[in-house]
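Appendix C: a fully annotated inverse folding record. The material below is reproduced so that readers can follow the format used throughout the book. The structure is listed first as tokens, followed by the designed sequence.
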């Protein structure tokens, strides 16, 4: 029987494949469109995400939303998830065992969303998805193609909040993503080049 969102979400709710399932507030699966040509994958939920059950709703998420809106990304074209669906204590980085335990669910999520473009937000997502140990600063903004996916690593919005001078880099990478979606026929070109928001996230 083909997988369905209902079965998938139910399995996420029941999951106790690693200890994070016992300490979470809410399982955090996605926000955005259930089927989308663009998928963002972050690290894992923080405190606000754990409380609300949605990824990227805290300060980093608000910055991401600000940049996506300014670049003209409608919510219908993107889907946002994480490497792990339960909050690691004290917002620490997920362990390899935790990421491995959640990997089957992430694989099912990708199959359900069916994205053409996958953006890895931050070093943790890049490392666990590609198995590469290259630093994110070296690989960000560089496209690779694998199994039919156009894949791009970039900085995590939380890193930008701590290093605001790098905001222009994340902005440039999102512009690359925008152009890729235009090339693939999912977005029409913007009439004028979008201006980067100057306010802090």
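Designed amino acids, in order:
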């Amino acid at each position: 029987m083909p997988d369905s969102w209902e079965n998938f979400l139910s399995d996420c709710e029941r999951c106790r494949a690693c200890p994070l399932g016992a300490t979470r507030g809410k399982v955090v699966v996605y926000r955005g469109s259930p089927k989308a040509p663009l998928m963002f994958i972050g690290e894992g939920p923080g405190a606000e995400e754990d409380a609300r059950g949605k990824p990227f709703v805290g300060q980093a998420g608000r910055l991401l939303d600000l940049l996506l809106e300014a670049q003209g990304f409608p919510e219908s074209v993107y889907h946002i998830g994480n490497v792990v669906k339960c909050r690691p204590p004290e917002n620490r980085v997920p362990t390899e065992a935790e990421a491995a335990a959640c990997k089957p669910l992430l694989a099912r999520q990708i199959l359900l969303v069916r994205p053409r473009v996958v953006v890895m937000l931050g070093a943790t997502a890049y490392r666990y998805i590609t198995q590469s140990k290259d630093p994110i600063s070296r690989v960000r903004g560089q496209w690779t193609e694998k199994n039919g996916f156009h894949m791009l690593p970039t900085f995590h919005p939380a890193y930008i909040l701590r290093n605001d001078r790098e905001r222009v880099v994340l902005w440039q990478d999102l512009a690359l993503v925008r152009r890729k979606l235009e090339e693939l026929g999912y977005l029409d070109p913007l009439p004028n080049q979008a201006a980067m928001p100057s306010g802090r996230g």
